[in-house]
């Protein structure tokens, strides 16, 4: 995956120099049911496993008093408040 993303960002396809800004971090696939935290500079990225065939992760990125959440490809079977609390928090 890393090779493909780096290739896609080559100047011939994407004429903005971003390659040095990339840092690839392999999440621990053995702990797929657990949250992980990854520190990149002064930014802490928190992961959460999402329910999806084949696995997927959501990412919570708090920084300087703001937070963004990126969580796609999830299939929530139970839409009750109790079942979704983990994801909403």
Q: Which stretches of 5+ consecutive residues score pLDDT under 50? A: none
Question: What structural category do the secondary elements indicate?
Answer: alpha+beta
Strand count:
4
Shape: globular
The helix/strand series, from N terminus to C terminus, equals: HEEEEH
State the separation between the terminal residues, measured CA to CA. 30 Å
Trace the largest sheet across and list its strands: 1-2-3-4
Taking all residues together, what is the mean pLDDT? 80
The DSSP helix count reads: 2
- Quaternary structure annotation: single chain
How many structural domains are formed by the residues? 1
Q: Major sheet, described briefly?
A: 4 strands, antiparallel
- Radius of gyration, in Å, reads 16 Å
- Tell me the helix content: 10-25%
Strand content: 25-35%
What does this structure look like?
The protein is α+β, with helices and mostly antiparallel strands. The chain has one domain. The protein has two helices and four strands, in the order αββββα. The chain has a four-stranded antiparallel sheet with strand order 1-2-3-4, with no helix packed on it. Strand 1 and strand 2 form a beta hairpin. The protein is globular. It starts with a helix and ends with a helix.
Which secondary structure elements does this structure contain, and how are they paired or packed?
Layout: H1 2-8, E1 36-40, E2 43-50, E3 56-63, E4 66-70, H2 81-88
Antiparallel strand pairs: 1-2, 2-3, 3-4
